[in-house]
Design brief:
38% helix, alpha/beta, binds S-adenosyl-L-homocysteine, globular, disordered C terminus, five-stranded antiparallel β-sheet
Length: 368
């Protein structure tokens, strides 16, 4: 049994079964045994690979997007470039390198990273050491939002804890993590139904409540509407709200049982982009998308960027460049280009955002 499994069992014996959100928060963020707190999980030797680790072009295109935004904002003298959950720091490194094409933008920038993991903070510090732009780290959003900002979050919302409810004959009952007779972790249901959920659905239907992710999007939307700027949320998930259990565990590039290895497997959920868009609109931000990752990267010039890099590359590098770019925009329901969506939030005074010309949220959906 892992150290965290033993601690969870003790907690549940003392306090009773815990909500899925508490389970997720402890698995990922427990100060000593949490998945992100104790290790760097990325890369071929780790548990999963993210877009910035697949191709430098990903971060470069987002860096050029940010530079264009700075221009559209009227070239403010000071702008915070904020990243939420920066992983190894690769995305920020690639963005800053690409931003060199606009020296005024680089000069206006200060870099702010929101990261809870000490291990990953160290990794980010090492990655960004050569970037010659000073970076500051924050534990949470509260301190990072101050003045005009460009906010980037890749695979961040999927790591935020959510709650689940299951439709039963008596109504919606919360899904909880408890212990079976042998002391192993099991899913169960709250004894009493939740009286606040008015939705009707067939028995057995699972409803997810991503309160933490909605709070992040609301806070950023409100800030951008008041103080200027824009934000990009990239993640896997759906453009339309729906029912279903999306909690999943990943270990060594394969799916695992979410209860089997607490703290040793990554735990994520799919992002409900329709609800995120609704929260951002309600907070006063303009919303673009969700677009697929494929559509956005192609609109931002992925092919042109790859062709430019290929000119100074060896044949082997050229093959790797093409393969990486292809993986980012690959089509099919489980391929990155389609499964991953991008939602943009912006100050409503800004014109249409680069890459989203075809993806402005239709007016009629503002009532959501
Ligand atoms: N954006 C990176 C990493 C994605 S993994 C990439 O694309 O490679 C999720 C990241 O979010 C990790 O850096 C993790 O430590 C961080 N994280 C998870 N929960 C967090 C929280 N509540 N607050 C701040 N950072 C968090």
């Amino acid at each position: 049994m892992s150290a965290l499994a033993a601690e969870l069992a003790a907690l549940i014996r003392e306090e009773g079964p815990i909500p899925v959100s508490r389970y997720m928060a402890l698995c990922l963020g427990h100060p000593r045994h949490g998945y992100y707190m104790k290790q760097d999980p990325f890369g071929a030797g780790g548990d999963f690979v993210t877009a910035p680790e697949i191709s430098q072009v990903f971060g470069e295109l987002l860096g050029l997007w940010a530079a264009t935004l700075w221009r559209m904002m009227g070239e403010p003298a000071a702008l915070r470039l904020v990243e939420l959950g920066p992983g190894r720091g690769t995305l920020m490194q690639d963005m800053l390198r690409a931003a060199k094409v606009l020296p005024g933008f680089r000069a206006a920038l200060s870099v702010h990273l929101v990261e809870t993991s000490p291990v990953l903070r160290e990794r980010q510090r090492a990655t960004l050491a050569a970037s010659s732009v000073a970076a500051r780290w924050h534990d949470e959003l509260e301190t990072v939002l101050d003045g005009p900002a460009i906010v980037i979050a890749n695979e961040f919302l999927d790591a935020l804890p959510l709650d689940q409810f299951v439709r039963t004959r008596e109504g919606w009952r919360e899904r909880l993590v408890g212990l079976d007779a042998e002391g192993a972790l099991v899913f169960g249901l709250a004894a009493e139904p939740d009286r606040d959920i008015g939705l009707v659905a067939p028995e057995g239907t699972v409803l997810e409540q991503p309160a933490a992710a909605l709070a992040v999007v609301t806070q950023i939307g409100r800030h951008l509407a008041a103080q200027g700027g824009a934000g990009l949320f990239l993640d896997y998930g759906s453009s339309r709200s729906g029912f279903g259990d999306t909690l999943q565990a990943m270990r060594r590039h394969g799916f695992a049982d979410p209860l089997a290895e607490p703290g040793d497997a990554d735990l994520t959920v799919h992002v409900d982009f329709e609800r995120m868009a609704g929260a951002a609109l309600a907070a006063g931000a303009a919303v673009s998308g969700p677009a697929t990752q494929r559509d956005l990267l192609l609109a931002l010039g992925l092919e042109q960027r790859v062709a430019a890099l290929a000119q100074r590359a060896t044949p082997e590098q050229r093959r790797a460049l093409a393969a990486g770019a292809e993986r980012l925009v690959a089509t099919g329901p489980t391929a990155m280009g389609e499964l991953f969506k991008v939602l943009a939030l912006a100050d409503p005074r800004l014109p249409a955002l680069p890459g989203f010309d075809l993806h402005r949220l239709p007016e009629q959906r503002r009532a959501f």
